Amino acid sequence: MNKPKWEPTIPVPQNAPDAPVNALGTPTYIHRYENEQGLLYGYVLRYEKVNDKKKFVHLSYGNLDGELKWYFKGLIDRPLYNLKYLNENPDKPVLIVEGEKKADIAQKILNNFYCVITSMCGAKSANKTIWQQLKDRDITICGDNDSEGQHYVHDVVKFAKAAGAKSIRVVQLTDNFPPKWDLADSLPNGVTLKDIKRLLQEAQIVYAKEILDSNDKIAKIVKHPFRLTSTHVQIYIEKSGGGYYENISTRLEVLAMSCSTFKNDWGYLVSWKDLKGCLHKWILPAEMLFGDGRDAIKYLMSEGLIIFPNHEKNVKNYIHQTIPSKIISTFTQTRLPRKSVLNFLPLNVK
Q1: Handedness of CA 78, 42, 103, 48 (dihedral sign)
Q2: Are the CB atoms for 139 and 255 separated by under 8 Å?
Q3: Is the peptide bond before 13 cis (omega within 30 degrees of 0)?
Q4: In the prediction, which pLDDT does 333 show?
Q5: What gap in Å lies between CA 211 and CA 220, rounded to an integer?
Q6: Using alpha carbons only, how large is the chain's radius of gyration in Å?
Q7: How does pLDDT run across 174-207, given as a tens digit for each residue?
Q8: DSSP string of 264-289?
Q9: Alpha carbon separation from 133 to 3, 116, 137, 185, 348 (Å, rounded)
Q10: Where are any strands of DSSP class E within 88-146?
Q11: Which helix (H) or strand (E) holds 226?
Q12: Residue 22 per-residue DSSP state
């Protein structure tokens, strides 16, 4: 027996009955999805549970087995959240967060500065979302402070770049923010709204449509200070009347992000050659980049990477803010061992 075909009707006809948003109980939040003109596409209902677990239910209007009505089913092609506001403010920078609740809260707080959007149900469906409205927009991404949030950020960078974003920045939360913190949570002790705005403004560029002049100087649109040459990693030094590139280390490539098969123990697969031409590869545990990253720098230098004086912090920042296009899964936890180049088995390359 063939499964009935689900055909959502978008936008929802004006003569459609009211959506039964309370049919499964009163939701904690009702998130309305619209197109660029504000016409209704459907809803996401969020329910909070006693044990802090959340549940999302899709509510859409459409045809199932010949009957046109409201169903607790999702859209096939999922629009961005807050799409109407995004369309009405074409010159505003865009802030992408992980989930509708965070988007609503952040939009109220940052309304004068950003269009705040997300994908439907946050991290669960970035790959099912239509991102094309990000073409030629300046994007900043702030994921949750956990491994799932990191994964979401990497996905959104990939999709925003494919959509033709003008520039993409990623927020790096500092040690002041506890694990799993997100923009819908209370601010940690000692952190103010001014600090949040500064974090957003100072987010590191991971992609931009670069335009270089005849002297190979970095264009004003590109704030990212690093570049990789055939022999070195360099940083752009701003000076009045024109800047210049300075070597910070011998060539160091960030080939991929890595995580264990359990989606934790995140790290960076890096590659370099020592002065004898021997190739080294190492899965650098992401946790080693917290603080001054001293342990990571010491290990890289002990294995033949040349880091120039007073540039240790710059090398750490270069690795930390690089978001490669590939993610590899490994059997090996990145924490062990630290004294040898890790062997890894790619299981899932995206």
Answers
A1: negative
A2: no
A3: no
A4: 42
A5: 9
A6: 23
A7: 778 888 898 888 898 888 888 888 888 878 777 7
A8: -S-EEEEEEE-TT--EEEEEEEGGGG
A9: 33, 13, 8, 28, 29
A10: 94-97, 115-117, 138-142
A11: strand 226-228
A12: T
